[in-house]
Amino acid sequence: MADRPYPSHWNRELILRDGSRVPVRPIRPDDESKLLQLLQSVSKEDLRLRFFDSIKEFSHEFLVKLTQLDYSRAMAFVALGETADVIIGVVRLHRDATYENGEFAILIRSNLKGRGLGWALMQLIIEYATSEGLKVISGQIMHENSVMIDMCRELGFEVKADPMERDIYNVTLTLAG
Q: What are phi and psi of 42, to 5 degrees?
């Protein structure tokens, strides 16, 4: 598949549990500095739960990989704060070589957890994966990330212990065709 143009038709407004509205759009290359601000605003513990390691610095190359996507192979949605200059959450999905399966990851600003933003972003990435014809989406979650594990169960994911990594659960959602 060839590179796709920027998918602006995926711009959305999510409504959270408290009724607040959050604009969401696909990530763009010019989001690099905003994404860095998000990563710097997240607690060390939340970064460890997301990246399975404690990351102290975020290189330009690392940020480029997260913001410059081939939209035919990957998607990332950013949730924006009260101004479009602030990213408060991001969910991403990378397809495998068969274009049938995708792996997701999500990160929310630590001080905004518990408002339903993660839930809404996960529903959006499931909607996106379904529209793209993917059959399965999956992810890996550390055992201690009970909130994320519970959310995946509620969304219909199968949760299984990883046979090789005892600290990890593999979560899998089979999508309706």
A: -90, 140
